[in-house]
Amino acid sequence: MPERPHIDNFRKQARALQRAVRAGDAEAVARVAGHHPGGVSAEFPLSGAQLVVAREYGFASWPRLVRYLDTVAEHGWDTKLGAAAVSDPADEFCRLACLTYGDDKPERWAQARAVLAEHPELTRGNIWAAAAAARVDDVRVLLAERPGLARERGGPMRWRPLFYLAYSRFDPDVAAADVLGVARLLLDAGGDPNEGYLFDALPSPFTVLTGVFGGGEQGQPAHPHCLPLAQLVLEAGASPNDAQALYNRMFDSDDSHLELLFAHGLGRDDGGPWWERVTELGTPADMLRVQLRWAVEHRQLGRVRLLASNGVDVSSPFAGRRPVWSPGDGRTPVEVAHLNGDVEIVSYLGSLGIAVPAVSPVDDLIAAVFRGDRSVLLAGAEVIAEARRERPGLIVWAAGRGVVEVVVLLVELGFDVNAYGRGDVPIEDAWETALHVSAGAGDVEMTRRLLELGGDPGLRDKRFGGTAVGWARHFGWAGVVALLEGW
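RE: above sequence
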């Protein structure tokens, strides 16, 4: 999406496309061919161009795009609002105290504590700061004077008070009684347990529950009283089908959030109010299959068991609305587990009557590699060569798994130690090298072995332009930095 998307921007794009098509521009004609069922006509209408533009952004039709933009206008989260310091102490405290999914660091929260210590009175006249600080007495007084404050947007991020409470992280020792007391006051005064915002116009809403559970690609911490606060919000009517919360927490093996959400109906209702506002989100069943795919690929046996015991389909192929990191492979969960060399998940699914079907020789070879089976070195040269052609970046995924023996085995099979791939998911995107992955994970043993195998520390990743030592510095891994600098 463009920054601060507005319907006028998309209208201009549609008119420009219409003019280009009518002028015979080859690129424009190709765009139409890829997204318009009727193709190009002699008098290509504006409505046709609008349909193409909408579909290029992932919407089924122009009206669906327009509806989504209306939702963004009402529920948008412009993250730039929290990026720059402000003069008002209450707003500055809120800005520093809450998650941004960008600069979320202990130093930032220490600054929030310093602002509050310098201006202890700031919570007495500001409902948003009082909520972020979990000052129950101040919230009670403010709501007694103006109960409607619980439903008003304000503060630096233009959120409502309950959101500031859920996203606050400045005080790891905040009292549970204060947090839950503020939450009850706000909910009793009309605070919305399903409040949420679209992060920079992206379609998956960040809700109150999203903030409470924390997590994410940068490992943002959960709220200090995550489970009791989430329980309270769920009992107040929050939908358990929170796609962003599940995504943010799937990187960690802790399943306490899933257990709580399943207890409150995860996957068993219509999806809640956000599925009405953003129809492109997909169904709760789709969402849980995404969770299953990640769990199988990342050897989270406990999560696979939990999902299966709560009715998630663990036998059908991953197809249709599928995880974006495994586009269209059509594999079943047991095939994915087999390919990953995960004998535990294969065995568990087998106990459910789901056996590994016949797979290709290449898949069998890769599965054996990830099991650490050195007999693969005796495999036929054609199969080994085909595996290298199909999965040139496999060594990057292997490095992300942290098993040195598997990386060594791949190099012995002729895989390039300096190949580009992805360390987070097993697909062929040329993002980074194995050395970037080990350095970013702080894995000294893997980094040393990759260097011994010929890993080039001078190579830069394809997304951020960083070297392996740059990744190690970014994540604060002093041991890996010392190793790479001294190599």
